[in-house]
Amino acid sequence: MEKDVEAMKRRAAEAAVSLVKEGMVVGLGTGSTVAYAIAKLGQMARNGSDVRGVPTSIATSNLAKKHGIVVTSLEECPKVDLTIDGADEVDPRLDLIKGMGGALFREKVVAAASKRVAIAVDESKLVRRLGSRVSVPVEVHPFGWKVTKALLEALGAKAVLRSSDKTTYRTDNDNYILDCEFSLIRSPAKLEREINNVPGVIENGLFVGVAHIVFVGTPKGVRKIRAR
């Protein structure tokens, strides 16, 4: 079963890479699915492609360099032609939950700088309503994080401080993540704004109106879903 899921991820990621053209600046998301896209872009680089990548995490930057991709930044290239990223959930409107990999802040900034955003997922990530399977990651400043947690819980969340190897998880920006479970997300756009209005919140994992196209890996191939 695990091999089947990985095969679906690979199909979706490589289909997303088919959108890449010579000379593009490409935003590189973070996560296991995007790793397949980076490997494919690495093949293009070895064949002489002049595509440059804007990574959304330290891990992605290291992986891109390992595959021979020229890495740049938003400071050098503030306009990104295309971003390829994954998602933890995708609803029928192509709204997303992202951030289980901890890179949501940088991913949202890079997406905002992009002309187009392509999301690659396996079919298990499709849901009828966001929050059905995963919590909403919220990146928060360490200062007063318990105050921020209480304010998020006042919005209806069950907030849990993320840990890793028995210590508090730190993002690449040296912040904390609160994984916030909401019993029912009726309006992702409204909730996204409400969360970001909480003092101490850096950014949250609701990506509303961001995706232009989603490539869904299935056992039979790749399904494309375009934003309406």
Strand line-up across the major sheet: 3-2-1-4-7-15-16
Mean pLDDT: 97
Q: Find the count of extended strands (DSSP E, 2+ residues).
A: 16
Radius of gyration: 17 Å
Please identify the top-level CATH class of the largest domain: Alpha Beta
- Regarding quaternary structure, what we see is single chain
Main sheet?
A: 7 strands, mixed
What is the end-to-end distance? Answer: 33 Å
Q: Poorly predicted ranges (pLDDT <50, ≥5 residues)?
A: none
Percent strand equals: 25-35%
Shape: globular
Question: What is the number of independent domains?
Answer: 2
Q: Which range best describes the helical content: under 10%, 10-25%, 25-40%, 40-55%, 55-70% or over 70%?
A: 25-40%
Count of helix runs: 6
Task: Explain the overall architecture.
- Helices cover 30% and strands 30% of the residues.
- With 228 residues, it is α/β, with parallel strands linked by helices.
- The chain has 2 domains: 2-126 and 208-218, Rossmann fold, CATH 3.40.50.1360; 136-204, ACT domain (Alpha-Beta Plaits, 2-Layer Sandwich).
- Strand 10 and strand 11 (167-168) form a beta hairpin.
- Helix 1 (2-17) packs across helix 2 and helix 2 packs parallel to helix 3.
